[in-house]
Design brief:
Blueprint lengths: L2 H29 L13 H10 L2 H19 L1 H24 L6 H24 L7 H30 L5
């Protein structure tokens, strides 16, 4: 590996690490916000979405996986599994939308689709763990997914200049 290639690889790893730290900080801040029925806005998903649009898809997946493992360490195996299932499904669906649309999908559509699939992934896993589908909770998850998706897409749009400087994105 050439010196320039190594330097670029190290820069990518360092940037992904900074974004992971930012995602964790946003998750911790969100933990202090009271939430009805356990519904969260998903502030750390702003970082994941930025990574999907402006970095490599595998960086976004790595951030989502590391977030899940972090939740596993802090809150236990059930929370960790729920975070991993929702996060990986969300990243997969948003990545698919971005690729299929040739990078022309809106932040809003990607964010809403990601939030809904995140909730659906958690719904399926929670239902499996409990041994019964939680149908009564599904409308809450779908509605909150749309609301959270809209909110995080707006917040992504507002924070793009700062995230672009942090990620040294030349496109912003």
């Amino acid at each position: 590996m050439s010196r320039d290639a190594l330097k670029e690889k190290l820069k990518t790893i360092a940037t992904a690490a900074v974004f992971f730290a930012l995602a964790i900080i946003l998750s911790i801040i969100e933990g202090f916000i009271p939430s009805p029925n356990g519904v969260k806005l998903g502030l750390s998903n702003i970082v994941v979405m930025y990574s999907l649009f402006y970095m490599k898809k595998r960086d976004a997946l790595a951030i989502a996986l590391m977030k899940g493992f972090f939740v596993f360490l802090l809150k236990g195996p059930i929370s960790g599994i729920l975070s991993l299932s929702g996060g990986t499904l969300s990243v997969a669906v948003m990545s698919l939308l971005i690729v299929v649309s040739s990078n022309k999908v809106s932040y809003l559509l990607a964010s809403v689709a990601g939030a809904i699939t995140h909730n659906l992934g958690q719904f399926v896993v929670a239902s499996s763990i409990l041994g019964t589908p939680l149908w009564f909770y599904l409308p809450v998850l779908l509605f909150s997914g749309v609301a959270a998706g809209v909110a995080t897409s707006v917040l992504l749009r507002l924070t793009l200049p700062a995230l672009g400087k942090l990620g040294k994105n030349k496109n912003l």
